[in-house]
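FORM 12-B: Structure-to-Sequence Request
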């Protein structure tokens, strides 16, 4: 079992290292854009399915509450949490519309949308991303190394793996880095790059 544990750790580290080496510049640009969005009164809308839905909620909590420093809350909204909205849209229309209709209702041109799909192809995430782009939101895409999301996002972050667990682990690392950098940029943390 110990070998299996160490193998999993090594694979996770390899994927994260390759991802950061390839995307560091884009991560920095995305954090700057996020900070500007919040500074100008915009908000962050987040959505995904399953583990990615949980990640959307986790990331929203980091922005709303706090991450590494004491600071005012930042407006982030996980579109995965309102069961009445989700089930009414799913029942009256289709599961494919559960995020799209929320983006239509809540998204403004100065906002950002963060779509998360490990496959890069979840129909409800793709539809919501297309709606966000149509409404003038800046789109961040968290995916694996396949799928349509990477072609649609303004900031496509494609993890170089087809293993869901490795992709999700990298997504959370990326989210934590973006939170940290955004806090530093907005609140003049001494470690600001």
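FORM 12-B RESPONSE
SEQUENCE OUT:
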């Amino acid at each position: 079992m110990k070998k299996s544990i160490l193998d999993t750790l090594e694979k996770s580290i390899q994927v994260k290292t390759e991802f950061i080496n390839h995307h560091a510049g884009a991560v920095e640009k995305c954090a700057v854009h996020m900070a500007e969005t919040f500074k100008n009164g915009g908000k962050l809308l987040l959505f995904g399915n399953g583990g990615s839905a949980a990640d959307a909620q986790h990331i929203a909590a980091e922005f709303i509450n706090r991450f590494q420093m004491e600071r005012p809350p930042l407006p982030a909204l996980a579109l995965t949490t309102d069961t009445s909205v989700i089930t009414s849209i799913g029942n009256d229309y289709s599961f494919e519309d559960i995020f799209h209709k929320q983006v239509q209702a809540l998204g403004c041109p100065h906002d950002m949308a963060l779509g998360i799909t490990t496959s890069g192809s979840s129909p409800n995430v793709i539809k919501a991303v297309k709606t966000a782009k149509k409404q003038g939101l800046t789109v961040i895409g968290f995916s694996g190394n396949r799928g349509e999301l990477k072609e649609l996002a303004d900031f496509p972050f494609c993890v170089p793996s087809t293993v869901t667990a490795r992709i999700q682990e990298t997504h959370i690392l990326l989210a934590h880095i973006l939170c940290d950098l955004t806090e530093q940029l907005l609140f003049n943390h001494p470690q600001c790059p």
